[in-house]
Design goal:
By secondary structure, the chain is an alpha+beta fold. It contains 10 helices and 16 strands. About 45% of the residues are buried.
Length: about 375
Amino acid sequence: MAEAILIAAQAGRALAEAARRAGLRPYVADLFGDSDTLALAEGYRPLPGRFGAAPAAGATLAAIEALAEAAPRPIGLVLGSGFEDAPGLIERLARRHRLIGAGAGTVAALKDPFAFAALCERLGVPHPAVRRDPPPEPGAWLLKRAGGSGGSHIRPAPRSPAPDGHYLQARVPGRPHALNFLADGRTIRILAVTEQWCAPTPIRPYRYGGALVQGAGKPPALPTEMVGAIAAGIARIVAATGLKGLGSGDVLVDGSDWWLTEINPRPGATLDILDRSATPLLAAHIAACLGAMPDPGPQPAGAAAAQICYADRELAPVPDLAWPDYVRDRPCPGSAVRRDAPLCTVLAEGADRAEVLALLETRTARLRAVHAAKKTHPEEAL
């Protein structure tokens, strides 16, 4: 029988799917309980929001403990998004379960914005300046939540000091990319460079939109020399912090200049589009956390992309829909999706970047049209 693995994240579906591809049986705790997550999971427990804040931390511990009791001898616990601002909670979880991924000390070093900025300065890695005090020119700064993910927490800087749990980061120009890697605590293996984009709203101008990876043999997203410099900088950070497993470094690129804005010490939003090699990525993640450095092999020749389809109006209750095969994170019938909340994830693969982006937009537009029609014609199929 396949081994069991525990998964906890804001949204656990991608990790559950990766676990199945790696021949494991996932037991999942997350915020949403989407229908495809439930179909993939051997066991499921709901989690509260903001895992590290009381009383959510206690409820999170209890949910994962109940999940572990239902799982037969799980090999360990993999944490996804949502724990970046909760190293204390990670430490408590590590006392109870075998943690497969970044430890509490590593997460604290990477997600404390001032410690991370100082580390980048010491290691010679370009990184935007950070501060707490009111900025002299607010338009040149952004307000971010420490440990935030998904971009929705990023705002233009106010004229006042950063509130508790937040910090100010200097604006730098450039287009967003991410270097996705596998780390063994000493060095890294590059998996891919992905390009990313935002899905802005008036109050969330930097909300995460999606990501694309080119196929093997296609022109790289960034110049080879720049990729090498970014990778060398991230490798120095990995050696300094002992980071293990899957991770990604977010960068802004402007001509020949680049800045590392943050490192995500966990499997990230690009898992869907990167897990296409001969070696399942979650199997590689587990091996790297045990000190090995497996070679996942080359990506397929075609490009792939994933995009969040946000609800442009509230959908409550969600009808029983026949979702297309290219849709993931499918909300359960009867649940509610708030306006501007993620409705689902849309996937696309194709020969090249242009084909994939066109297909992604066509599919997302189709979902939006049907979503709007459900208000007056709930019987219409996707």
